[in-house]
């Protein structure tokens, strides 16, 4: 009987913990201010190109979200210091109706297009070929839709 009670408690905790973890993430007022402040503290001189932040609705909820492209940062004279063979770091933030934003994903990608598929806007992310089980060739295109607070992969090619 004791084992059954412990098993039920473990299952309840597994179901509740993701919601608790999400609720503990604090909202930020503006990802652009937040990210720029971070890099201004990390770099002696930080310069941000126009493409550093893109504001668009990435989860089809009517609210304008934000995508930060760290490849558009020049830190102490080095453009895109976090960029490598896998691409540059992109941070994806969702806006909530109550006001504020929270980060839902960070990805190392070459870039992305925002395209309409089957009536919904989706992200077509250009990634290293290994993400499509290839060692070389053209970039892999991973198409994902944001559902709720998660990226859902639709296709890889």
TrEMBL record:
Residues 1-21 form the signal peptide. Keywords: Signal. It comes from the Bacteria. This is Uncharacterized protein. It comes from Rhizobium esperanzae. The lineage of its organism: Bacteria, Pseudomonadati, Pseudomonadota, Alphaproteobacteria, Hyphomicrobiales.
């Amino acid at each position: 009987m004791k084992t059954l009670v412990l098993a039920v408690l473990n299952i309840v905790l597994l179901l509740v913990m993701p919601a608790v973890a999400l609720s503990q993430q604090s909202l930020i007022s503006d990802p652009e201010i937040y990210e720029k402040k971070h890099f201004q503290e990390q770099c002696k001189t930080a310069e941000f190109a126009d493409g550093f932040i893109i504001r668009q609705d990435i989860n089809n909820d009517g609210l304008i979200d934000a995508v930060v492209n760290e490849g558009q940062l020049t830190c102490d004279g080095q453009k895109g210091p976090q960029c490598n063979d896998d691409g540059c770091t992109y941070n994806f933030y969702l806006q909530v109706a109550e006001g504020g934003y929270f980060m839902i994903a960070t990805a190392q990608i070459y870039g992305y297009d925002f395209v309409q598929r089957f009536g919904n806007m989706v992200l077509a992310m250009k990634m290293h070929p290994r993400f499509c089980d290839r060692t070389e060739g053209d970039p892999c295109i991973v198409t994902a839709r944001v559902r709720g607070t998660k990226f859902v992969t639709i296709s890889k090619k």
